[in-house]
Every structure is written in C-alpha cells, then in structure tokens.
Design brief:
About 95% of the residues lie in helices and about 0% in strands. The chain is mostly helical. Keywords: Coiled coil.
Length: about 80
C-alpha cells in the first residue's frame, strides 16, 4: 500500500510540474504578444505626435499669411 501512495505522489508531482511548465509557457507567449502590441501602439503615438506638430507649424504659417493679407487689405482701404 505504501508503494502505491509513493507512486501516486510521484505521478502527481510530475503532472503538476508539466502543468506548471505549460501554463507558464502560454503566459510568456501572451506577454510577448502584448509587448509587440504595446510597441506598435507606441510607434503609432509617436507618428501621431510628429504629424500633429507638423500641422501646428503649418497652421501657424497660414495664420501669419492671413494676418499679412489682412494688413494689406487694411492699407488698401
């Protein structure tokens, strides 16, 4: 009877170890996928900021042009 208990205990320990290894492997895979997604979101955010800065510069240039046209029209009147 003691031999059976030892055998069952050994089998349970081995199965538990295999289960823990499989679970940690899939957690690692999920973490890697999340890291790739976060990196792509970060790149997208950096591109959005760069485009926003370019648009702000263009808007400032357009405001300056409109102001100069307004000044020119006031001088003509």
């Amino acid at each position: 009877m003691t031999g059976a208990i030892v055998a069952i205990t050994i089998v349970l320990i081995v199965v538990g170890g295999i289960t823990a290894a499989v679970v940690s492997h899939f957690r690692l895979q999920r973490h890697r996928a999340d890291a790739v997604a976060v990196a792509s979101y970060r790149k997208l955010a950096e591109e959005a900021v760069a485009r926003q800065e370019a648009l702000q510069a263009e808007l400032a240039e357009l405001k300056a042009r409109a102001s100069s046209i307004d000044d020119m029209l006031r001088r003509i009147e």
